[in-house]
Design brief:
The protein is an alpha+beta fold. It contains 29 helices and 22 strands. Helix 2 packs antiparallel against helix 10, helix 8 runs antiparallel to helix 10 and helix 10 runs parallel beside helix 25. The relative contact order is 0.10.
């Protein structure tokens, strides 16, 4: 038998004892910290994720022709012919390509598989072969490209790959070539076809087609830098009034056959293309990438390239412009996302502090006893810190790991810092609150009373400091917006303006809240019954430290209303931009005249309410003829009605009418006996001088340029008409842009007034049915489809998702803050109801008592939050532009998308707060009435 020494002590470990005593509290803290750490760590990774996706899409959508870094150099005409010819062969170009890769280094991530070198012609040559297609009687024009890697980037569809004879020179009379499958199909080229290119001081160069190849990756940079290599296009002859078209394509030569181009009029040049590795681009690397591109185009990297290849090398690329546009877009969107992040972060921090305060309040008697028995503040704080750290640190690590798994990314430090901040706050909330509450040793504490509380001087100084910060943030946001210039990254103080406004509002409301309670206290004593005066007295005897709950609710309501207003403004801007782009619910337009009867068929399509006809001449030239202005020829009455219906540049039909051209036709002009195809006028010489100048509606820029005096306009058909601007409108449905003239089509010649566009309206418009009706006659543009394309940008869509998630998380934390507030008061309320029931209080009166007690604070939070959110949106709206978040950068937005108050997001959260508060009060009264009151009536038990 072992005898314990009298000096030995059995000491139960503090942390283990506390965890065993209150496992539910520890589990709740762990869950709160884990969820908060997950959200905090996921935010920077989500921002990086949509930033990377946005950059990659921006580079891909810009096209390889803009994003590839191209090094060009003419042949060395000063060298002897053998050296000059050797410099254009594949081996020499590949050697120079390797030197360029070494010179540029690793500063720019490159896709070596899609990079290439070669020789191509500068001037496309007209082909005289009669078997080639001539759509409008014009011969096709072909480029010649001798690019490396043809066998690796294509599959042989017919014949064999071309081979170069030995020692090809500028005098070589014939070589072999290949074409893509699209080129062969559209230009009627077959294996064995021979094409002749005019020679210079020699005979024509014959290129015999030996193979037809199909690109393995048609969208890759190899084929997309010069898209004519894979796909020929129909091109309008420049300056031709009849808009005749011709085919333009390319022939492919083996790299060693390039010297043969020196004897032709194609003016060949050498090139080396460096394609960026899109999958290796990251949004946070944009500043470094722009520096690398600038150094490659005109900096040290270009100098090293010239030393490695030729002093004649020059570099061109639009990649820097693509990166700059992306950076401007991200700079504009970032502060808006930061507003939601600051709001949600503030609410989450308040909830963690409230959780620590709730734990400290529940353990007040325990901690007071420890202090009374000689416990030091340092020892007390250390024990509480160890107690919370054991729970919070593993929970934060678990939240961080979950965020890393749920949101893949490349950068970990920001996520670790965010989760670490949450863990630190979770660890310190309880110790700091306990140390602050037990600085002095005491057994009894005075009752906290809102009506009797008086703010201290230090609190007044802190509130004035916050007020100064809020005023500065609001003024900065109103004067310079969410970013200061295109290179700004956003001011964090400006992004925190809504939160600062909510903080000031909470502090003001806490100071003003006792005033009505004091004023109502005396009249309430005269009321019949005990419920009214008692509930008012209970509301005035609440906790004097109610700033945190109110701050959480006001910040959440402000962030929700602000976020709802942002998302609503984005949706409105997209709707308006889509309408202005299309000009109606749907648009059918072609460069040529629409066929007869199409208007009637479209009008009979399901869902179509009305059709307005317009003839648009995009190349009409006023006065000196240097700058073209689109002219829309319309029927005044139907078109004016369409402008009023869509709300785009509405005007009266009489503005366009003249005495000799009243435009009395129907919506499509088909009611006129002399109507031409699709309702156009069949005659007219375009000479309006006999009846005076033809009235016109113009855009502000055109009106400023041309003035109000009559001026001649040369139409696309060669006729001339004299116009006079009678009214100015910002936009018009027929033309998508801010340069236009709108005239009465009855005053133009039959060809100038030909119908080329149909503006279709209808509430239940079916885009698929409309396309089936139109067929291959003309392209169909539907407003709903156009609207859907505005959310394709990962940067904008990702920012919207992050914003919506942050607002939802803030609302969840606000509800949690409300629950914590009610949970803190639940024991006291239960004891009160139990005592009052012994005095004859009925269950109905108990429910009314708790509801009336909770009502003042709920109304304070709801009304204060609504007013604060409304004031925040009104104050900050002048400094916030939603355009960059609403529409892609490739779309011209008609106007600045301003921030407007959204009534739904303003009122619904406030009503939810009131309903939730009252519902919890009713539920608590119901539950208390059903359970036994023995515990609450026991003397000496903790309340």
């Amino acid at each position: 038998m072992t005898v314990r020494s009298p000096r030995s002590k059995v000491i139960a470990p503090w942390v283990r004892t506390r965890l065993r005593t209150a496992p539910g509290t520890a589990l709740a803290l762990a869950l709160l910290v884990a969820v908060t750490a997950f959200l905090a760590a996921a935010l920077p990774r989500s921002v990086d994720r949509y930033g990377d996706s946005g950059l990659r899409q921006a580079v891909e959508s810009a096209g390889a022709g803009r994003t590839v870094v191209q090094f060009n150099a003419p042949p060395d005409y000063g060298a002897p012919p053998p050296e000059r010819d050797a410099g254009l062969r594949g081996a020499a170009l590949e050697k120079d390509h390797a030197g360029i890769l070494r010179a540029t280094g690793r500063s720019l991530p490159l896709d070596r598989a899609q990079s290439a070198s070669g020789v191509r012609s500068t001037e496309p040559q007209e082909m005289a072969e009669p078997w080639l297609p001539r759509p409008d009687g014009l011969p096709p024009r072909l480029d010649v490209v001798a690019q490396s890697g043809l066998a690796e980037h294509s599959r042989l569809a017919a014949g064999r790959l071309p081979r170069a004879p030995e020692d090809v020179t500028a005098r070589t009379p014939r070589v072999e070539g290949a074409v893509s499958t699209d080129t062969a199909r559209r230009l009627n080229i077959e294996v064995g076809s021979v094409l002749r290119f005019p020679g210079v001081q020699r005979g024509a160069l014959e290129i015999r087609v030996t193979g037809i190849v199909e690109p393995r990756d048609p969208r890759g940079s190899y084929w997309s830098v010069a898209p004519l290599m894979r796909t020929p296009v129909l091109t309008v002859l420049y300056g031709d009034p009849e808009l005749r078209q011709y085919w333009k394509g390319a022939l492919l030569l083996p790299p060693d056959a390039a010297p043969a181009l020196l004897g032709t009029a194609t003016e060949p040049y050498r090139y080396w293309n460096l394609a960026p590795a899109v999958d290796s681009l990251h949004g946070h690397d944009v500043p470094r990438l722009r520096t690398a591109v600038a150094a490659t185009e005109s900096g040290p990297a270009l100098q090293r390239v010239r030393e490695a290849t030729s002093p004649l090398v020059s570099a061109t690329s639009d990649l820097d412009e693509v990166l700059a546009h992306y950076e401007r877009l991200r700079t504009a969107i970032g502060p808006l996302v930061a507003v939601a992040a600051f709001g949600t972060g503030t609410v989450a921090a308040v909830v963690l502090l409230m959780a620590g305060g709730l734990a400290a309040g529940r353990r007040r008697a325990e901690l007071t006893l420890l202090r009374a028995r000689g416990g030091s503040l340092t020892g007390l704080g250390g024990r509480l810190l160890a107690e919370t750290a054991v729970v919070a640190l593993p929970a934060a690590a678990l939240g961080l790991a979950a965020a890393c798994l749920a949101v893949p990314g490349t950068r970990l430090p920001y996520a670790v810092a965010a989760a670490g901040g949450v863990a630190l706050l979770g660890c310190l909330a309880l110790p700091l609150r306990a140390v602050a509450a037990h600085r002095a040793v005491g057994v009894h504490t005075a009752r906290e009373d809102v009506t009797a509380a008086r703010p201290s001087r230090r609190r007044t100084v802190a509130e004035l400091t916050l007020l100064a910060l809020a005023v500065g943030a609001v003024v900065a946001l109103r004067t310079r917006g969410t970013s200061d210039g295109s290179d700004a990254t956003g001011d964090q103080l400006v992004s925190s303006a809504p939160v600062l406004v909510a903080v000031i509002a909470a502090l003001v409301l806490v100071r003003l809240y006792p005033l009505p309670l004091r004023g109502l206290a005396r009249p309430a004593r005269r009321l019949r019954g005990a419920v009214g005066p008692l509930s008012l007295a209970r509301a005035g005897r609440g906790s004097g430290s109610s700033v945190l709950p109110l701050l959480a609710l006001l910040t959440a309501l402000t962030t929700a209303a602000f976020g709802g207003s942002v998302l609503s403004g984005v949706a409105d801007a997209r709707d308006r931009t889509a309408l202005l782009t299309v000009g109606a619910d749907a648009r059918v337009e072609t460069l040529h005249v629409l066929p007869s009867g199409l208007v009637d068929r479209v009008r009979r399509t399901a869902g179509v309410d009305d059709v307005t006809v317009a003839g648009i001449s995009y190349y009409a030239r006023p006065q000196d003829g240097r700058d073209a202005v689109p002219v829309a020829a319309v029927d005044p009455a139907p078109y004016a009605a369409h402008t009023r219906r869509t709300g785009i540049g509405a005007f009266d039909a009489s503005v366009l009418r003249t005495g000799g051209a009243s435009g009395t036709g129907g919506a499509d002009g088909a009611g006129s006996p002399a109507a031409g195809p699709a309702g156009g006028p069949a005659s007219g010489d375009g000479d309006a001088d006999a009846a005076g100048p033809l009235p016109a509606v113009a855009s502000p820029k055109v009106a400023e340029r041309l003035g109000t005096r009559p001026f001649p306009v040369r139409m696309e058909d060669g006729s001339t008409v004299t116009l006079r601007i009678t009214q100015v409108r910002e936009r018009t449905p027929a033309v998508a842009g801010d340069h236009f003239l709108v005239v009465d089509r009855a005053g133009l010649s039959a060809r100038a007034a030909r119908p080329t566009a149909l503006l279709v309206t209808g509430d239940g418009l079916d885009g698929a049915a409309l396309r089936r009706t139109v067929g291959d006659t003309a392209p169909v543009q539907v407003r709903a489809d156009e609207r859907a394309t505005y959310v394709d940008s990962p940067l904008q869509a990702g920012a919207e998702r992050v914003y919506a998630t942050a607002v939802a998380a803030g609302a969840g934390y606000a509800v949690l803050a409300l629950l914590l507030t009610l949970v803190r008061a639940a024991p006291e309320r239960s004891a009160l109801l139990a005592r009052l029931r012994t005095m004859g209080l009925t269950r109905a009166q108990g429910r009314r008592l708790l509801v009336l007690e909770s009502l003042p604070q709920a109304l304070l939070a709801a009304v204060g939050g609504t007013l604060t959110a409304w004031a925040t949106v009104r104050l900050l709206a002048p400094g916030i532009d939603l355009t960059t978040m609403a529409v892609p950068g490739t779309v011209s937005s008609p106007a600045r998308a301003a921030l407007r108050t959204d009534p739904v997001s303003l009122l619904v959260p406030a009503l939810v707060v009131v309903a939730l508060t009252l519902g919890i009060a009713v539920a608590q009264a119901w539950w208390t009435g059903r359970r036994s009151s023995v515990r609450e009536l026991r003397a000496g038990d903790a309340r």
